[in-house]
Structure formats: structure tokens, C-alpha cells
Design a protein that fits this description.
It is a single chain. This protein has one domain: Aldolase class I (TIM Barrel, Alpha-Beta Barrel), CATH 3.20.20. It has helices spanning about 25-30, 75-90, 105-130, 160-180, 195-205, 265-280, 285-290, 300-310, 320-325, 325-335; strands at about 1-5, 5-10, 15, 40, 55-60, 65-70, 100, 140-145, 185-190, 210, 215, 220-225, 230, 255-260, 290-295, 315. By secondary structure, the chain is α/β, with parallel strands linked by helices. The protein has 10 helices and 16 strands. The model has no long low-confidence stretch (mean pLDDT about 95). The strands form 4 sheets. Strands 3-16-15-12-9-8-7-4 form an 8-stranded parallel sheet. Strands 5-6-14-13 form a 4-stranded antiparallel sheet.
Length: about 325
């Protein structure tokens, strides 16, 4: 079991926010798996995202890798709030955390989303007070701000630019101060040089404050990494349907997309390792409390072990889930 601020994840294995966590059926399957310690929703915007046929995924033929052109979920946050309420109040399974993955184009929109999540937690608290359950479901709701999707035209991931990221962090900090029991994480892109890692940690550290005699930071964990943008595959590199394909055409309708799975495992390990070292060496004790979710190329038990050895407290997968369904977690658990 790993404690991430106010939530416990046991086993320390979950899905990362992805297209295979889009609807209630998929979320229920993830929630009811004996091998997931928590469930992360697909990233939602306040009012949803207009998804079209150009938004899709392909799988590599020679490795457990994927390339996708997805944006965000077509379902708005309010739909995920209702599904989360249903999971946490109706499921017969042992309760586990649900991490609501959110994003939007401006800090005020994210602030509105956080207010809706606080309202959800109040509803769950009221439900708990009228039940005989020993576990308060409001304590099982966490939030993850996705600052790293590479597939949105004209909206580069804010985590690549500290000045763009700063107002989003301020919104998260204000929300946390209104309720310091809320567990908040950041989903980050793949960073490629040392200054990027340091800039992110320092941007987060600026929001540490004293509470009841203890130093605390609003950000409980960093999820590393999201997909690697501007990646490209030809049609002869992917697993095909029965339809004939021209080998020299782009594998995705959009051409470029986000690379995931085995192909990004080394860079994901590097990101986890870099953040683990910076967090451990930081002079602010509140930063030492931040945990790391290792994501990227978690395709077998050896990759899972490497992620933990690099410094990840919790590990997550998406590409393996897309290939094998929830059986992926049973495959990873058999260590």
C-alpha cells in the first residue's frame, strides 16, 4: 500500500488517464479488477471535447507501443462526476480511489472544475453520514491536472513552459487551501534536459506553506510521463485490420501523434529517476512528501520492477490496457 496524501493505493498499480477509461463500462471494469489499486478517468474538460474520426490509436507491429491522435474525452466533467458518485456508492467491491483527470484551456475554467469536484466530495460525505459504511467515499476522490497532452493544435502543453503553467498551479493551490484533504497530482510530459525538471520542481515548491505547524505542498504526486508528441509511424509499422494499407502512408489520419508504450520506456524511466533525485535533494521538507507515478512502457513485470527501482511509488499503464483490456493488470501483478 502507498499513501498519497489522503488516499491509499493498494496494490500500487493503476491505469493512467487514457481512452480506455472513457465511459462507465470501462471505468467499472477497471474499478472491479482485483489488480488495480485505484482508477484514473480519461481526461475531461469542463464541457467536453469534440472528438472525430481523426482521433484514434494504432499499435506497433514489433513492440508493445502505440501512437495516438486523441485529444480529451468527449464527455464533460459533470458526467465523470456522476459516474464517480455511482462507483463509490453502488459498487459491491472494496472501495478504492478514483482519480478525476481534468484539464482546460484557462485557469478560470480549471477553477470551475475544481469547484464541481469539491461539490462531489460534499455529496459523498452526506451519503456516508446516512450509511453504516466505515469508509467515507469522499476521501477516495482525487484530482489530476493533465498539463501535458501533445495533440491539441495551437495549445502546447503548459508543463513545457513554467510561465504558462504558473497560473494553473495557483488555481490548484487555492483549491487545496480551501480543503487540504484533497489529493492533487500533475500529469507531466516527457522532459528531455535537466533544466526542465528543475523548473517544474521549483514552480511547485513556490506553493508550499505552513499548516498546523507542518510544511505542506498542494501537489501530492507527479505522474511521469504522458505520451511523446510529434511522433510518426508509417502504415507498415503497425498492426493492421483486414483492410489493405499503403506501406508508405501515415499510420494516423493526423500524421503525427503521441507515442506511448514500450517505445518511450527509457525516457519515462529517465523522467522518474530525475524527479526522484530532485525531490530527495530538495531543501523544502514538503517536497519530500511528493510521490511519483511511473507511466510509460509498463508492458511486463520487468518494466514494472524497473519503474519502481527508478523511484516510482505507484505505476500505471495505458498501452497494455488498450491491447489486452483489464487482463493487463493481472499480467503485471503476476510477479
Amino acid at each position: 500500500m502507498v499513501k498519497i496524501h489522503s488516499i491509499d493505493i493498494s496494490p500500487p498499480l493503476l491505469n493512467s488517464s487514457c481512452a480506455w477509461a472513457s465511459d462507465l463500462k470501462q471505468l467499472t471494469e477497471l474499478y472491479e479488477s482485483a489488480h488495480t489499486g485505484a482508477v484514473t478517468t480519461r481526461t475531461a474538460k469542463l464541457n467536453g471535447f469534440q472528438e472525430g474520426p481523426q482521433h484514434t490509436v494504432v499499435f506497433a507491429a514489433e513492440s508493445v507501443s502505440s501512437l495516438n491522435s486523441y485529444g480529451y474525452s468527449p464527455y464533460p466533467l459533470r458526467q465523470y462526476i456522476e459516474w464517480t458518485y455511482a462507483l463509490l456508492t453502488s459498487s459491491t467491491q472494496s472501495p478504492k480511489p478514483v482519480i478525476l483527470s481534468i484539464t482546460d484551456s484557462s485557469p478560470p475554467l480549471v477553477a470551475e472544475m475544481l469547484l464541481q469536484i469539491h461539490d462531489l466530495r460534499r455529496r459523498l460525505k452526506s451519503h456516508f453520514l446516512g450509511q453504516s459504511s466505515s469508509i467515507d467515499p469522499s476521501s477516495l476522490v482525487a484530482v489530476e491536472l493533465n498539463t501535458s497532452c501533445p495533440n491539441i493544435p495551437d495549445l502546447p502543453p503548459p508543463s513545457y513552459d513554467p510561465e504558462t503553467l504558473a497560473p494553473f498551479l495557483s488555481v490548484l493551490a487555492a483549491s487545496f487551501k480551501s480543503d487540504p484533504t484533497l489529493t492533487i497530482g500533475l500529469k507531466l510530459p516527457p522532459y528531455v534536459y535537466a533544466a526542465q525538471f528543475k523548473a517544474l520542481v521549483e514552480a511547485v515548491a513556490q506553493h508550499s506553506f505552513d499548516l498546523d505547524g507542518h510544511r505542506i505542498n498542494p501537489i501530492a504526486y507527479l505522474a511521469c510521463t504522458n505520451t511523446l508528441g510529434s511522433s510518426f509511424m508509417f502504415s507498415d509499422q503497425i498492426v493492421h485490420s483486414d483492410q489493405p494499407q499503403d506501406a508508405l502512408t501515415a499510420a494516423l489520419p493526423t500524421g503525427f501523434g503521441g507515442l506511448a508504450g514500450e517505445a518511450i520506456h527509457p525516457i519515462s524511466l529517465g523522467n522518474v529517476r530525475s524527479f526522484a533525485q530532485l525531490i530527495g535533494d530538495h531543501p523544502d521538507p514538503s517536497i519530500h512528501e511528493m510521490k511519483i507515478f511511473g507511466i510509460g512502457g509498463l508492458t511486463n513485470a520487468s518494466a514494472k520492477a524497473r519503474m519502481h527501482e527508478a523511484g516510482a511509488h505507484v505505476v500505471g499503464c495505458a498501452t497494455l490496457l488498450g491491447r489486452h483490456g483489464v487482463k493487463a493488470f493481472e499480467m503485471l501483478a503476476s510477479v
